[in-house]
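Researcher: Here's my situation. A collaborator sent me these components and asked whether they could plausibly form a single complex. I don't have experimental data yet, so a predicted model of the whole assembly would be a useful starting point for our discussion.
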Amino acid sequence: MAVAQAKQDLTEARIDALEMPGGAGWADEARGHALSRLRAMGLPGRRDEYWKYTDPTSLTQIEAPRAAVFDATDEAAMFDGIERLKIVFVDGVFDAGASDDLSLAGVEIERLSEATAKDIHWAREVFGQLEAAGQTPVARPLAALNTAFATDGVVIRATGKAARPVSLIYLHRSDRSDAILHHVVRVEEGAELTILENGPAAARFNKCMEISVADGGAFHHVRAQGRDHERRAATHMFARLGEGSTYKSFTLTANGVMTRNEHVIELTGDDASAHVAGAAMGDGKSGAFHHDDTVFITHDAVNCESRQVFKKVLRNGAAGVFQGKILVKPDAQKTDGYQISQSLLLDEDSSFQAKPELEIYADDVSCSHGSTTGAIDDTALFYLRSRGVPTDLATDLLVLAFLDEAIQEIADERLADDIRLRLQQWLERRRKG
Amino acid sequence: MLSIKNLQVKLEEEDKQILKGVDLEVEAGRVHAIMGPNGSGKSTLSYVLSGRDGYEVTGGSATLEGEDLLAMEPEERAAAGLFLAFQYPVEIPGVGNMTFLRTALNAQRKARGEEEMSAGDFLKLIRAKAKDLKIDAEMLKRPVNVGFSGGEKKRNEILQMAMLEPKMCILDETDSGLDVDAMKLVSDGVNALRSEGRGFLVITHYQRLLDHIKPDVVHIMADGRIIKTGGPELALEVEQNGYADILNEVA
């Protein structure tokens, strides 16, 4: 594919400003391939179909736009009540001092740089491999850039049922930090792992996670992005699912100038299941808000199930985007695919754009998708007010109710309640702020 | 308690006058009933008093203990002590009945400068009140009115009334959709709330509700006005002869 000159220049300029970390032969090779992919695709531009609704400029420009340091010292740490193994990154750099000891029953954890320095390592089967597979049929250049240049990250291998969730905590200390993190996850046969992610990370954040789930394995992911207003983030989750395995991911998002969360999931073993959900709350009052959920699920095995549930509440000129695709390959009979994206627009300045897609080549499948955009229910609002609940609080109750359908997708009730509580706190803060 | 003087109301969107000068005084400790044929403006009166959108007051006044109701937001009216039991209680998916009631109760207390009720006290109170209305724990946990039968919805309205302890209660066709047993339950709930300091305005088509909730005063409303006022016997007259006689008599 010929890349237009302007795009090529942009891409080369960006590449020039980055330094590829060195490692063992296999890792260097993987990074080299990723760089070639990036060059062949070029960084995304406004004219690319896949970026029609989201302007990638701030994500691709050489220097990260300044973002005021955000430190949520005024609220309890996320997932505070949950027993977990904490791994801390400050502006995209692993902080051993702030992290727990990386040993956990049923799990092996290493820093990416250590793993990629070893001549033989399980991560070679995954690192850059799932990302590469996820580049067709749609290009994801920011993910290729990530594989090539990621400076830090962790590799996590679950061999049994993980004793506790692994909690990745991202802290932001520098207003110009430009973090590129790459995590590699392998869930072995019948093993179970939960990964939690939260925190502002950096002024600009490019994060990639590759997750390979072997037969009968289960991977759970709960993430909270917020309340850093000036965040710019592009994240990718690439997953490959074996027979009878499970993948469940939920993301809560609040604030953020620019967030693009992509999920690229391939169901390659029979009877596998993938659930992806997101609840986003955007307020354009304290700066722009743009949130984009882009999901691509490929069914390539028999009797698999996938589910996408995305909800957004937008106000004061906030913008939401959903691009969701279910691709059912010819042999993927008995596929059960479901997709819903809904937005609640609290005023006329806010906008939601949805592009649901189904592409089905098998004949015995059940796939459905839906997308709605609506305003707050006036009748319900009046009912609440007639009982003495002020308009702003009544609106928040309805907002919580609306987003809860996405939160219900979280399997672990404690985590779901934690997310609910956080959402309530954020809404309350907003109401009182 | 509730004082309505020459209240005139039209639809906001249409040039249609619904209330054409309503005068009504409900005293504390008394139960007034309004009866009237369909389209007489009974429900509009309840909506306008509670502050629902879509109506324009073109004249007259409505006060609660001397405070101008019409100048207040719906939530302020509630905090001031006004309560409307809806003819069609609204379903709110995703909002738990308990959360709803606790939020409402504490919002009202806060608006009145009172201390919020603790979770423990609230739980104790709602359990006791729910029991009287035969509302089980399951119903309290469910989203507001979602999947409730007609009778359950009306009982839930009365539960809200019992919890919020308003000064002035308006019941808009609370008997509609109720079978005999449910009517008894709802009426018992209302009667339990009758007290010296509380006024009631019961809007109904039929006399049968008034067998259970005995009114002190009965008004007949037609074409946007109260055309006749009397004692409980007026309701019986309607039951026997319909509205036609009264309408003719006034005309």
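Model: Some features of this prediction you could bring to your collaborator: The first strand of chain B starts at residue 2 and ends at 11. Chain B has a mean pLDDT of 92.
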